[in-house]
Amino acid sequence: MRTLTTLFTGAVLCSSLIAQGVITRIAPDGAHHFYYNGELATAVADANLTTEVDTILLGGGDYFLTQQLELNQPAVLIGTGVRQDSSAAYLGRTYITKNGGNWNLTITETADGSELHGIEFQSLVDVVLGSTNATSDVDDVKITRCRIEELRLSPSANSLANNTVIEECVLRNLMVNNAVNTQVRNTLLNQVTGAGSNSQTEFQHCVFHNFNFSNSNGNGNVRYVNNVMLKLNTAPFQVNEPSIYEYNLFAGSGGTYNTTFATGIANTGNTSVASIDTAFVANNNINPNAYSITADYHLLPAYQVIGEGGAQPGIYGGADPWKEGQIPFTPHWIELYTPNTNTVNGVLQGVHIKASAQQH
Q: Coil, helix or strand for 186?
């Protein structure tokens, strides 16, 4: 019998999967605590009672919130990933959702340094930094290989958050809310608001889906470098958001599309092509209006060297390019081969186990 599987870390090997995979909370001293019935809120509440940084490993499946989920103590939450095709043996991706109610994941002011990896937040489950606007000083949060409909860096307009890092994610809406030094890399996103002129927000090697680059977003002095900007426009388009644009690729949807910049807007080395099909590989299945899991965002060779210093724009460029499958950094078993009949003295022979993890 041959089984191809992607089991999630050694902690899950002795556990059976049910509607949600087993949750494992690992304390810094190595103690393991198991939650067998999708008890995400209980695992987080227990982590909040500690004085150290716990790691919470979430199995695959759907986790339905029935209350607010708050991190009040630094913790690292790691799911199985956000793609069904890369996490099938764990009941699929780790998916946090809700049936009703205004339930979100909040990382509070006492949870600086928390991390999220390989988790999908859907059905209007927002990720929010800070419990109140006046005290939303949440620093050094890292979000990697997640999929989030709305990420708010404070509950409302004036965040005190610092040094948020977002890498290899899919975001529908990022509300910076004037948080300082937000770094977004190798991420696909639709909308960014509230990145004010003092926020020092920077996007590198991202893909923007039909973002309008307008003053109405409240953005200013944002640094956009080595990104790909996909546009639905088929006529000339003028960028008037007062930010800094360096070595980006703007790709329209045909017709007479061309990108220009309003007077006084800093721009260097940007490239504009009339059609997505001009710059991307054939049969790319790219929807300029939204992320598609079936899209191929690889650029043609001629456009892989047009970034700053010959870098590749978009998600496959930079120091940490996009990893296919968006698998979290934790080890995954990728193959378990157990033959039926090859035994010697009752010991099964020829067993092969292979493991893999995303390199970062």
A: coil
Q: How many CB atoms lie within 10 A of CB 209?
A: 22
Residue-by-residue pLDDT tens, the chain, 360 positions = 222 333 333 333 333 334 577 899 999 999 999 999 889 999 999 999 999 999 999 988 899 999 999 999 999 999 988 766 655 555 678 999 998 888 999 999 999 999 999 999 987 899 999 987 666 789 999 999 999 999 999 988 788 899 999 999 999 999 999 999 999 999 999 999 999 999 999 999 999 999 999 888 999 999 999 999 999 999 999 999 999 999 999 999 999 999 999 999 999 999 999 999 999 999 999 999 999 999 999 999 999 999 999 999 999 999 999 988 667 765 554 455 556 656 666 566 666 555 555 555
In a domain, residue 101? The reply is no
Is residue 250, in this structure, part of any structural domain at all?
Answer: yes
The residue with tokens 């620093």 is 139
Name the residue among 314, 281, 38 with its Cα closest to residue 185.
314
Question: Which residues, 6+ apart, have CB-to-CB distance to 212 below 8 Å?
Answer: none
> How far is CA 120 from each of CA 124, 214, 329, rounded to the nearest angstrom?
11, 29, 16
For residue 245, give its domain range. 227-313
55: in domain: no
CA distance 206 to 313: 8
> Does residue 248 lie in a domain region?
yes
Amino acid at 170: V
Contact 80, 120 (CB under 8 A): no
Q: What is the domain count for the chain?
A: 1
> Is the separation of the CB atoms in 145 and 119 below 8 Å?
no
